[in-house]
Each structure stands twice: as structure tokens, then as C-alpha cells.
Amino acid sequence: MTATHSTRMLILGSGPAGLSAAIYGARAGLAPIVVQGIQPGGQLTTTTDVENYPGFRDVIQGPWLMEEMQAQAEHVGTRMMYDMIVSVDLSQRPFRLVGDSGTIYSADTLVVATGAQARWLGLESETRLRGQGVSACATCDGFFFRGKKVAVIGGGNTAVEEALYLTNHSHDVTLIHRRDSLRAEKILQERLLAHPNIKILWNKAVDSFVGGEGTQGLIALDLRDTRTGEVSRIPVDGGFVAIGHEPATELFRGHLDLDADGYINVRPGTTYTNVAGVFACGDVMDKHYRQAVTAAGTGCMAALDAERFLAEADFESTSEGHRTAARAVATV
Ligand code: NDP
């Protein structure tokens, strides 16, 4: 028999955004259900050292942090479901969602925290050396390359921002781009081109990430000239892939307002989407910051927005009930 779960607050996604929304929602008495999705714990479960999440003096591990967040969410009354939503109906409240398992979820409010994934080049050497010199987040991992040679691959805003950020740690930053012009905003380009510690290699694509002996990690990049096909090698200690992100919003296409890059549009300064009762938080609506702590922050906002929304909706329906009762009395 198909199970149906009804909840005041359904949260999709179990990264820092979803779990923070759950902690706040549970503490507000909304008994939230979190549907964990394809990658329980989100992107932090694929990283190792985390040094920038406030509250921990020592380096902590991403997977451990997510286990703690989940335990805290459950402790205050969140129910975790190992399921993945495959269809949504947001045309009326309660919203109706169906999981991969066949389970039906009926929700008074929905918090979308499905996150985003960094795009990778798709090279075998990239996968092998991920976490050993190869990263997709300079803000997260740049610190580990203090005084070392680093390279950023890409030509958009993210790549340029990451290259500029890395100059805080390294005097030897190389931006590698497959064409001869950048996609990034002009002001960022100007900053990049003017920076004495950044050099740019135009018309180059990464053929391979080269690892050293034993556990040495990344030591070089093999680059192919995209015009001539010529291959050359540059020594680097860190390689940051910054070729874009993919927000997990396919399910919501046609249901929620998305921007040109597929991120969920929210009302500025809030987590309200274009559908009343649906809120979005974390990387699925944020292409600028993409940090665990900012995702947690917007997760908290989503729970507070949902709680207020429910309070107003409850007040409206109670008032309507009173008005109907008063009209009935008046007509007797
Ligand atoms: P973009 O899609 O804008 O840029 C991706 C870059 O990676 C492009 O230069 C692209 O090259 C290159 N690239 C893509 N695939 C490959 C590949 N297989 N091999 C080599 N290079 C590749 O992604 P961003 O993450 O930079 O930005 C995404 C969105 O977020 C944009 O709208 C951006 O404006 C926004 N953003 C805004 C920020 C801000 O305002 N401060 C900060 C960060 C992001 P090519 O140019 O040849 O296509």
C-alpha cells in the first residue's frame, strides 16, 4: 500500500540549508520531514577538511559536520526520509509530492534546498586527484595552498573571483581558459588583468591532472593548446576547476520561476519563491556565495519565512471561519 505523509513543512535536501531549515522548523513545532535526496548530507560529504565553518577551532571533516547537523535536526524533532522526489504538484495547497519509493508527501509548506553541483571537466585524473590538489572551491580549499603555485580553470565570474581570492594565499596564480576572451564581467576582468600575481594562459584546455609519487597529490597540469593541439606541462600544487555549477532544479522547471542559469528566483532579502508557501534556500537559489555557512543562514531564513507564512495562513482561515459563522448566525 502507498504510504502518505502529511506535514506542516516538507524540506527537500539534507545539506546545511535543508538541515538548518529543519532545526528551526522543528524547534517552531512544525515537525518537519526532510527528504534526503540523491546525496544525503549534500556537497560537504564529498569534501574532507573544513576550516571555515564557525565554531570549530580545529580542522573538522565535512562528512562529520553533516552527521552532526542531521543528529541535531533529528534530536529536535525532524523526521528524515531516505527518498528522492520524482514529481511535484504545486498548483494547490497542501502541495503533493511523490517519492521514488512511491511514498506521497502532502505538505502545507515546501522548503527547496536541493543544492547545486560543481561542474567538473570529466577527466579520470581529475576524479583521482580530487581532494589531493584538485578542488572546485577556492574559498573552501585555497588556504591549504599558502605560498604554493595554483591554477584556476575557467573564464566566467567564478573563475576570475577564485583567481583573485587565491592571491590572498599565493603569489603564483595562473588562470587557464579555453578561449582568448573571458566571459566574466568587465570589472572583474580589469581587476584580474591588473593583478601582478596572476598570469593568464589563453586557448588552453586541461588534458590531464598529473599526480606525483605516492601520496604527493597534484604536481602539474598537462595543457593542450585549443588552436594548435600542442601539449605543454606546467607545475602546480593546486588546480581549481571553476567551469560553472548545476543547480538541482530540473524537478521544478515549469513549477517555479528559475533564472537563465536554472537557479530558483526568490524575492530579494527573503526565501519566498513565486509560489505562495514554497521557499528556497542554499545553493539552489544562491550562485554568488555557495558556502556551507551561507546555505545554513538561508536555511534558517526559509524556516522563519515558512513559519510566518503558516501563521498568517492559519489566521486567515480562522478569521474566514469566524466570518462564515457570523454570516450564518446573521441569516438565521
Ligand atoms: P559560467 O557558466 O559563467 O562560466 C563557466 C566558464 O567555464 C566559461 O568561461 C566556460 O568557457 C568555461 N567552461 C565551461 N565548460 C568548460 C570545459 N569543459 N572546459 C573548459 N572550460 C569550460 O559559470 P560561473 O560559475 O562563472 O558563473 C555562473 C553564473 O553565476 C553566471 O551567471 C555568473 O555571472 C554568476 N556569478 C556571479 C558572480 C558575481 O556576480 N559576483 C560570482 C559567481 C558567479 P567559455 O567561456 O568558453 O564558454
Structural features, described:
The protein has seven helices and 19 strands. It is an alpha/beta fold and 332 residues long. The strands form five sheets. Strands 1, 2, 5, 6, 7, 8 and 19 form a seven-stranded mixed sheet that branches. It has a five-stranded parallel sheet with strand order 10-17-11-12-13. Helix 5 links the parallel strand 11 and strand 12 (172-176). The model has no long low-confidence stretch (mean pLDDT 94).
Beta-strand content bin: 25-35%
Main pleated-sheet profile: 7 strands, mixed
Integer-rounded radius of gyration? 23 Å
CATH class of the largest domain: Alpha Beta
- What integer is the average pLDDT? 94
Order of helices and strands: EHEEEHEEEEEHEHEHEHEEEEEEEH
Number of domains: 2
In angstroms, what separates the terminal alpha carbons?
46 Å
Which ligands, by name, code or SMILES, are bound? Answer: NADPH dihydro-nicotinamide-adenine-dinucleotide phosphate
Oligomeric assembly: single chain
Q: What spatial form do the alpha-carbon principal axes imply?
A: elongated
CATH architecture of the largest domain: 3-Layer(bba) Sandwich
